[in-house]
């Protein structure tokens, strides 16, 4: 799975990306620092099941397990990007890979709609939220509208399934038949003659498909310098909003990497390990401590976790081969952690491990209770499961 980082230029996307991945990316105080998308690996933070055992698995730190996921920092988006303005086409082409979006917003209002620096508070961050949604919606509309008259007649003449044709037209944007079907029902357009749809109808359909296919979380970045009013107004929006200081997270990750502090992503505190910090380093860490104390955390890890577990509604499952030792056949304890859609079954897990194991599935075993589970048994978050099959 892939999470996309979206937003206008200079909102802090690249800082968020570097903080989440520690990848070497360019960060600068001007628009379009990111021209080609940055691809990296970040982590979901979960509590490791090995805490229930006497022995530690070796895959976690103090019971904190980090499960890898892909993340992509796409080119900054400016108004009318869907018409090809700025790096719009590049942005939208890259975004199709994402199953969910973290929209990094400059909550401080210190950058204008184009991403140019202005005085703190001069720009309304709510405008950025509305414009990004519209850009993605209009991008979808542009793809669909291009051949719509011809497609509408073909659907009518050949008796084709409406959602199948629309999904095929928008496949390059990551739209599936299920997304289209849900959007048709939600908008009520399924009950209307598609040949008579107005431009407004089609934009409404595309807007709903965007919400369904690309669920979005708001990272209210630069929260450490944003006004309380801006943060409150963003939090009042009907979506998940997380106050974030990507710069603080990046500083903590870098300090931890250099052995200056002990810090795990998402922690609400850190421990200084090196007593020989410079005056500037001490002052910087003191400032970050105050930010964490005020916000609860830097917010970066919270954004990633809530995107995965709330927006995408995934769970973590640990497949093992030895249900007693919770290990693989050579003794590695809890060797793998799989992210799966809530509602997935033991049979789904078998297929996730390998097609042959899925095809030759017999039953599963709950490693905690040692109970035998059938193929349709629904998995829970944190399950440790042994799959039994005839596959070699």
UniProtKB/TrEMBL annotation:
Pfam family, one: YGR210-like_G4
GO CC term (a single one): cytoplasm
PROSITE patterns linked: G_OBG
UniProtKB keywords: GTP-binding, Nucleotide-binding
All copies of domain OBG-type G, residue ranges: 1-264
Recorded superkingdom: Archaea
Gene3D superfamilies per the UniProt record, alphabetical: 1.10.8.470, 3.10.20.30, P-loop containing nucleotide triphosphate hydrolases
GO molecular function, one term: ATP hydrolysis activity
NCBIfam families listed in its UniProt record: PRK09602.1
Alphabetized PANTHER family for the sequence: OBG GTPASE FAMILY, OBG-TYPE G DOMAIN-CONTAINING PROTEIN
UniProt family annotation: Belongs to the RelA/SpoT family.
Protein name as it appears in the record: GTP-binding and nucleic acid-binding protein YchF
Record organism: Methanosarcina barkeri 3
